[in-house]
Amino acid sequence: MPISIDLVELAEIPLHPYMQKVMDSGVRKHFKSYDAQRVSYAFSKAQFGETFLEVGPGRCDLTIMVARSGLYSKMVVIDIEDRSAKMPEGVDFRMMNVGKLEFEDNSFDSVYCMEVLEHLDDPTFESGLAELRRVCRGQLLITVPFMEPMPSKFHLQKFTEKRVREQFPNGKISLLVKEPVTRVPWLMVEEQLSD
Asked: 3-state secondary structure string, the chain?
């Protein structure tokens, strides 16, 4: 049975004011407009809660947006590389692998993991996905490239319709279409978990 996928044309959605300011300033010279649109759209999905976990912050634009929003009273960011210098005030940064999260069950109201899972080897992918679900007591939001040709220099996982159906049977799936279409689109998976 085919999965139901909502189509989201990123170029048609206005950027969050913070992201618009970043793009207008030119400080991200190599930051593509569709990357800014993806981050901005993901931020628009953030739900109010006490605690927020971001896994793999990349350039930290989402980190800054969430920290400034005041949506959460506690924000934790993890990565396998030290990104502490980029963290806004009040954000708890920890070096940690998604395959072994050092948090109690149901620790976070929202967990975001964007453009991370495709970089993981098979055992770390399986444990990482289980860990994300274990520590989340509310909204889990994941983005991955969809139908990416393999092999890729940096990506070890491929997400096809069949695999997405198997891995995320209860997820709300959105296809994030880039403009201009220069590379594969992203899939955004949203799961609502509860303790």
From this structure: CCCCEEEEEHHHCCCCHHHHHHHHHCCCCCCCHHHHHHHHHHHHCCCCCCEEEEECCCCCHHHHHHHHHCCCCEEEEEECCCCHHHCCCCEEEEECCCCCCCCCCCCEEEEEEECCHHHCCHHHHHHHHHHHHHHEEEEEEEEEECCCCCCCCCCCCCCCHHHHHHHCCCCEEEEEECCCCCCCCEEEEEEECCC
